[in-house]
Amino acid sequence: MIKIERRDETSNLIYFLTPVLAIFLTLVTGAIIFYLLGFKPLEALKFFFITPISDLYGLSELLVKATPLCLIAIGLSFCFKSNNWNIGAEGQLTFGGIVGGGVALLFYNHEGFYVLPLIILAGAIGGMIFAMIPAILKIYFNTNEILVSLMLVYISKLLLDYLVVGPWSNPEGFNFPETRQFSESARLPILFEGLRIHAGIFIALFSVFLAWVVLFKTYLGFQIKVSGLSLKTAKYAGFKGKTMILLVFMVSGACAGLAGVGEITGPIGQLHRMISPEYGFTAIIVAFLGRLNPIGIVFASLIVALTYLGAETAQIFLQVPKYTGQVFQGMILFFLLASDFLLFFRIKFLGLKKYEY
Amino acid sequence: MYKNFLRLLASVLLLLGFSINANAEFKVGFVYVGPTGDHGWTYQHDEGRKAVEAAGIKTTYVESVPEGADAERVIRQLAQSGHDLIFTTSFGYMDPTNKVAKDFPNVKFEHATGYKREHSNVSTYSARFYEGRTLLGHMAGKMTKTNVIGYIASFPIPEVIRGINAMTLAAQKVNPNIKTKIVWVFTWYDPGKESEAAQALIDQGADIIMQHTDSTAPVQVAEKAGVWSFGQASDMQRFAPKSILTSIIDDWAPYYVERSIAARDGTWKQQDTWHGLKEGMVAMAPYNSAMGSGLVKEVEKLQKDLASGKAHSFTGPIYDQKGNLLVAEGKVADDGMLAGMSVYVKGVEGDIPK
Amino acid sequence: MNIDINFLGILIGAIMASSVPLILAASGELITERSGVLNLGVEGMMIIGAISGFALMVITDNLFLAIIGSMLSGLLLSFIFGFLTQSLLTNHVATGLALTIFGIGLSAMIGKDFVGIPGKQFPLLFVNLKEAIPFFGPIFFGHSIVFYFAFLLPFGTNYFLKKTKIGLIVRAVGDSPLSAANQGINVLLVRYCCILYGGAMCGLGGAYLSLIYTPQWIENMTAGRGWIALALVVFATWSPLKVLVGAIIFGGITILQLHMQAMGIRIPVQFLSALPYIMTIVVLVIISRDSRKIKLNTPTSLGQIFYKEK
Asked: Is the ipTM above a cut-off of 0.90?
């Protein structure tokens, strides 16, 4: 029989190897699915995971796609580490986009170096304020932050809808549900001509660095981790739980807001109804896959971004249905969570002795 | 300096065989906004693609491409992977199409329903769906008993407003008592919402259901409720065999085949195409015999006249809701006015949402 | 006046019909949550139910099989969730979210060949009475069997939770798994059952959409109803009868908004669509600030991982 025991200590090696195991299992299962769908498994996997990044353009697209995922996941890691379940990053992204986009529209005929920083700041503040709603409600009314932050996603998307269909729609745009194009000085600079990779990646990388410093080199990071481990311990240690909740939500919201504003001032260049293909939800996978560790998140965001690109490439070359990408994303997380079991528990094989319950 | 280095790196990677499809076979790519199985807008574009394929030209498509940052990548990927002509089949692809066109001067681009042609390798095309709406209005005006026509509308863009106006003008001509009730659903494709909208209109007395959205849900609701309906984009007859009087069919096939052959043979030129019943880009599905042979003949004649130019959907005098003259008696609306139409004509109730 | 009354009946009937998938999914999720498990995969299970129900209908041409199949497929998907969260002790939020993403993707994959096929007319009951009785006719008659099931379900659920021994056990497990386990209750088994039941009901809710409400399959056809159902459970403060009220309010807002438009009344559509979400937050705030009220119905251990050393 099998016996399950809690491990006393988690080995670091297993901690970072399990994501690799999860990816491997996903690939194997993916190959089986491709086979069942009537595709050559290896060829399909090649078009899914290798072809998209086999040229410079593809690599740049990977980074374009990974940038918002990485940013949001970095923010979420603060929340998740401290046991605050903010799953409304999509809403914070949208609201950040709305506020940032509003400023961009205000300055649509201005040129100047100050325009872009203003927009980015506005976006970060927008996301931050929106994330403070579930935090404050949790602090003062004891509400469940999972549900509040989720509800706010839909509220923000409807608000964006209202704005781009109505008051903010392009006056010269024949009523199409989109705003004006932002001015050149409202756009994030492109790094290489001909590629879409934009300066947003520096924001993401800087946030990774900052997160790493805060989490590993400051007392605050220690507090965040401890308050996540056990509320009692945290209280015993005299930490201000309420301030902590507000703080991690603000960080998380600001990151999501930055991601939103990065999208609209980067690859999109205006506001319309679809500023994010659910980056906020996908980033939750990224955060987990990256083990809530800044460096891990960088890698995880690249891998998850690849599932998006791969789904497109596989459709172009093999006519593989596009939604396989989502199936892969779901599977990675399943396998990762499942293999987490190995982290905290050890399975003992006890032979066929009688098993006492 | 570093740019040169990048270019060198890129070409090395290319040489190493990383890039796919270096062969020179002529290929046409399609970008769709919905799934090919929506049985509406995207479905019809895919029918057009199949016609191109049947003409012996290789095609590729990508479906359900969101109109955001992803569209540009997909279009670019198609251009980069050896496609010589690319059809982008949704309004939201307008700016991405033009952006990619700038970087691939040797690839031809065709953007549906847009108005920007910023580079010489971008053409635009659309269909005069409103001509079909005129026929629908005629039938609706004759067939309604309650004098209430229910209209499910997507977004208040000129194309949709044009449809509402054309339909109302034609219906008023044969039945001055009709009333057009409009529900805006702010989506092109959401069967649940479309069917709820159809039900709401029926419950409020509409016995004709017309839709400017893409799913088959409204005609199914009409069938269940026993009222008349019209299919949109493709022949939806089998979803509501009793209820559907006809469908406006977007027939992109001839255009797609013609443009693909032109691009292959090197005769492709930039143009702005707006075709209607005359050219066959707008076609009507078989008329339901339930409306009586007399009415079928009338509509067939009107269809012929619209195609030949003898009749026009917007013939003056046309007034807006406030009674201002839009088109003088004996005149017809010009294409510029049609393209930017953003007011209701007299007889339509309510306001255009803002 | 007679016509107005009848119209009101039709309106109420339409609102009730639109709230059926919400009632089914929310009632299922309610049981899951009362046992202390938060499954955010409702949307995923609904969409899987929708496609499997429709696919089975097309393949077997048997509506009964289709309904059963949709429940089974929802149940199967929820089993993944159950296995991960209960046996492998994974995080509820992350697992549920993965379930939704996975379910939407998988449904589109399965559904590829079923797009554009017209559905069958689902048999409606008491159609004659619908026309014959003014006002009450369109409210109570001329609906599908699933409709009647959905409206009885909250009453059954209420009875189950309050009056039966098993219901008591479910609540005990949700409120304090540890003390329940100490009393010899098999917490794992109870939670597994509640998760599977929730999955089956979500599957049925999805099948209502693809087989009855808009009989056809299209990608993503649940269009966020799973998330609304999740909101509904909270809105109803985990009380089955209030799920019924909430579903009618949520469904009513959508239908009324369309009717107001058809009447030519200018309304901010997006604001009305956002109302259910705003109301849910307000309700959450009201119930959560008073800890006594929470204790009344809220499963105390909701979403917490339970592990007992053996």
From this structure: no
